[in-house]
From TrEMBL:
SUPFAM superfamilies: Putative methyltransferase TM0872, insert domain, S-adenosyl-L-methionine-dependent methyltransferases. Its EC number is 2.1.1.199. The gene is rsmH. HAMAP family: 16SrRNA_methyltr_H (MF_01007). Pfam families: Methyltransf_5. One of its GO terms (biological process) is rRNA base methylation. This is Ribosomal RNA small subunit methyltransferase H. GO terms for cellular component: cytoplasm. It catalyses: cytidine(1402) in 16S rRNA + S-adenosyl-L-methionine = N(4)-methylcytidine(1402) in 16S rRNA + S-adenosyl-L-homocysteine + H(+). It comes from the Bacteria. Belongs to the methyltransferase superfamily. RsmH family. It is found in: Cytoplasm. Keywords: Cytoplasm, Methyltransferase, rRNA processing, S-adenosyl-L-methionine, Transferase. It comes from Holdemania massiliensis. Its main location: cytoplasm.
Length: 312
């Protein structure tokens, strides 16, 4: 079992204000770090934990054995949480946590093909039962589609030249592995980029992973589902790792925690003025402590945002 470090663990779970008899959701089970911390704070309450990755569910079941009576594991995307919970007779929850992106074990398992640091078949599927993989995107999309994907999901400045080089390379033979793709990317980039700090394939691999797993679509749907389910005084805590995710969370939270401004010259009674149903717990995101950053460098891009449904 590969060790997993849960980012912003205390901050995110503390933000939920867990009640011993509450109903909670971990939308991204991973290796169970956040789920274990929540379940340890429950007595008669229940936690519903979601993940598409069969390996994550298996390993987490072992980790959560001591709190198994308080945890229900569900193999599904968190975007489906409302339907899945309704099927189980749950129509309201007291808190939701989402730790987005790929977990450390997924990155560190070379066979999964998520990382540009390990030689592996191009894959990147969180749900390994789905047919679409990174191999399909790299070898089957046309140049224009590839370029648009790399720009949209990776914000890759050299998306056009990388797409052009991919199409040129696969015309000779398919691009089958992570290292083959890295070599193609390097050939498409100028020396000034290759000499910069950071891996030249980072943004391309991010774009492919997001597209394969439809991460941003799932995030938007999942946030709406979580807000619909939330009981009064319940909270949503979301940890993001790149600007695309954070932008979606920030905008969704801003939208529901504010109301359209009304011309003050319009005569209205206080009861006629719309009030927001949610409030931001902090205007700025919560960031990892210096101690956490020293212990786990992968925390450096993490941001935690928290939203609360206003009580009746």
């Amino acid at each position: 079992m590969i060790k997993h470090y849960s980012v912003l663990l205390k901050e995110s779970v503390d933000a939920l204000n867990c009640k011993p008899d509450g109903i909670y959701v971990d939308g991204t089970l991973g290796r169970g770090g956040h789920s274990l911390e929540i379940a340890m704070r429950l007595q008669t309450g229940q936690l519903y934990a979601f993940d598409l990755d069969e390996q994550a569910l298996t390993e987490s079941q072992l980790r959560l054995a001591e709190v198994a009576d308080r945890v229900t594991l569900i193999r599904a995307n968190f975007a489906q949480m409302q339907d899945e919970l309704n099927l189980r007779g749950v129509y309201g929850v007291d808190g939701v946590v989402m730790d987005l992106g790929v977990s450390s074990p997924q990155f560190d398992d070379a066979q999964r093909g998520f990382s540009y640091r390990y030689e592996a078949q191009l894959d990147m599927r969180m749900d390994q039962s789905q047919p679409l993989s990174a191999w399909n995107l790299v070898n089957e999309l046309d140049e224009k589609e590839l370029s648009a994907l790399l720009w949209k999901y990776g914000e890759e400045s050299y998306s056009r030249s990388i797409a052009r080089q991919i199409v040129k390379a696969r015309a000779v033979s398919p691009i089958n592995t992570t290292f083959e793709l890295v070599d193609v990317i390097k050939k498409a980039l100028p020396a000034k980029v290759l000499n910069k700090k950071g891996h030249p394939a980072k943004q391309t691999f991010q774009a492919l992973r997001i597209a394969v797993n439809r991460e941003l679509d799932s995030l938007e749907t999942g946030l709406q589902a979580a807000m619909s389910l939330l009981n009064p005084n319940g909270r949503i805590a979301v940890i993001t790792f790149h600007s695309l995710e954070d932008r979606i969370v920030k905008e969704a939270f801003r939208k529901v925690s504010s109301v359209e401004k009304i011309d003050p010259r319009i005569p209205l009674l206080p009861s006629q003025i719309a009030q927001p149903k949610f409030r931001l717990i902090s205007r700025k995101p919560i960031l990892p402590s210096g101690e956490e950053l020293a212990e786990n460098n992968r925390s450096h891009s993490a941001k935690l945002r928290v939203l609360e449904r206003i009580g009746d």
